[in-house]
Specification:
Layout (H helix, E strand, L loop, with lengths): L3 H14 L5 E6 L20 E7 L2 E6 L6 E6 L4 E6 L14 E7 L9 E7 L7 E5 L6 H4 L10 H9 L5 H6 L9 H11 L12 H22 L7 H8 L18 E4 L4 E4 L1 H4 L16
Antiparallel strand pairs: 1-6, 2-3, 3-4, 4-8, 5-7, 6-7, 9-10
Length: about 290
Amino acid sequence: MPELPEVEALASFLRERAAGRAVVRTDVASFSAVKTFDPPLSALNGAVVSGASRYGKFLSLDVGDGSDRLHLITHLSRAGWLQWREQLSPAPPKPGRGPLAFRLHLAPEFPAGPSSGFDLTEAGTQKRLAIYLVTDPRQVPGIAQLGPDALSLTRDQLAGLLAGERAQLKRAITHQSVIAGIGNAYSDEILHAARLSPFKLAAKLTDAEITRLHDAIGSVLTAAVERSVGQRAATLKGEKRSGLQVHARGGLPCPVCGDSIGTVSFADRSFQYCPTCQTEGRELADRRMSRLLR
């Protein structure tokens, strides 16, 4: 799933490549992905892209200015992605064929040049990619419910947010209404950097642990944004994988202590941690096989 750093990089990429260009048309290949109907997608036709923004893990293409501004907002979910196309076919795509969900055509950068733009695609059978066209981003339910953005969070804000959380720490910091922007992969990286167990109760953190967690959120996400911004959309996934220290590296040595990185698996996902760095040497049981060790 694209998280804060990748969505920030996609917004930067769109500001560079799409801003100042007019929308020629949009094509919908997956009607279930479009969650709004007023204004219609045809309202984008002829409007000029003014920028791109990020709201947690939501990506917004901002079109028009002033009272006429519209926001084409996408949540890429677990298997969605944005693919930039330097040349788009003038023929509309056939609905229901392949991973394509939505296509946006932009006016050529140069006279007589090809129409370029981007596709929103989604792999797999669980279709969760969501597209909204709104006049105010807060009209998107997921955005209206977002907590403070992870990169703007102060140490005292974090302490206040976690004080009332009964959930385990990993679940708390990935809950978007608590903190916006952190997902499964970067929560593994943050908790490893902070030397905290994923299953420690959020409300039970000491002052020193809250400080370590806040420092880790800032350092891990800032470094990931710096690696990602400036990358082409096509290379962002590889850049994310190359920068991960523990996530998706089960069985490999921890880069800090050399211990073997452990894995906890759930029904449809897994996460990783280091027993030595995070759980005082204790291995956490696989959720599929037995109860989790505290």
